[in-house]
Gfo/Idh/MocA-like oxidoreductase N-terminal domain-containing protein
Amino acid sequence: MPVSLAILGAGIFAREGNVVELKAVYSRSSKSAEALAAQSESNADIYYDSPSAAGKSVDDLLKRSDIDAVIICVPILAQPELIRKAMKAGKHVLSEKPIAKDVATAEELIRWREASSIKSIWAIGENFRFICPVVCGHSKLKEIGGQVTTFSMNLFALVDENDKFYQTEWRKTPEYQGGFLLDGGVHFVAGVRHLLSAVGEDISSLAAYTALLEPKLAPVDTVHGILRTTSGRSGSFNVSFGTEFKGGFEIFAATNKGSVTVTPVSVKVVRKDADGKKVEEEESFAFGAGVKSEVEAFAASIVSGTPDPRQSPQQALGDLIVLQGLLESGEQKGAVKAVKL
C-alpha cells in the first residue's frame, strides 16, 4: 500500500509511485509551492502562507487525515518548529539534515520527542548513507574486516555566485554556525562515519583548523581536521567550498586487511588474495544523490513500523557533534576536542 505523503518546503522531491503517493505540497509562497507541485505527475494540492487564502496554511495541511507522513525541507532555523508541529499532528516525519543548527538545539529536540507520547517515526534525511558508492563501500569494508590503520575524507569545490545553493538567501547570510560547512559539510561527516562503522569504529576526538577563503561564504568555508577513532587510529578530514583550482570528492579507509576508496561514481577495493598478493577491483556507478533510496527507506519504515537506523536522530546528532567539534576546534586554533557520541 502506498504511503500518502506531503512535502513541506522545496528541497527533497519524491515522485508518486508504488512506494509513496504525493498528496500535497507546502511552501511559504504560492509560487514556490506551485513550482514544486508542477514537478510531480500526481495532482498534488497546494498549501502556502497567505492571510487571504483560507484553509491553505501548513496547519490546515497537517489536519488532513489522509496524509500519513511529511518530508520537511525548509531553512535550517525553521525546521524544529515544523518538526514539532508535524509530530504533534501524528504524522511520520522525514526532516532534512542537519538535524538542527547546533548540538544543543538537536539534543533539546530529541529530549522533547523522547518525553512525549508521540509514536510516529522521525527520520533524518541524510542521503549520503544511501548513495550507492557509499553503501557499496560500507559493504566491501565490512567484508574485508580487520583493524583500521588510517582513513581520509577529501572534498574540494568552489561555491560561486551562480551556484543554485548560493542563490538561496538564507545560505547567503547564514544565521547559524559554519555556513556551508554546516549545511554541506555534515554530509561528509556522515559519509566517513558510515564507512568506519563497517568495522565497528567511530570518532572519539578531533582537532582542526578552519579558514575563510571566499569572503562571500562567511563565516568559514574550509576545514582541515584530524579525527581519532575509538581504537586510537587517526585519519584526516579536509573539506573546502572555497577552492577553485582543486577539485574532487573521495572517502578512503584502510585496515590491516585491505582498503576501500569511494568516489561519487566508483568504489575501488584493494586486498590480498590467498597467495598474499595484492589484488584490486573497481565497481562503477551512475552518479546519484541517494534521495530516492532514502525516501523509499522512510516509506518502508512506516509500513514495517521499524525505523531505518541510518535515518535515526541519534545518527544525525552524531554527525552534528563531529561537525560542530571541528568548527569549535578551528575557532580555538586547533584545540583537541573530545567527541561524545
Q: What stands out?
A: Residues 10-18 have pLDDT under 50 and may be disordered. The chain is about 30% helix and 30% strand. The radius of gyration is 21 Å. The CA atoms of residues 141 and 337 lie 27 Å apart.
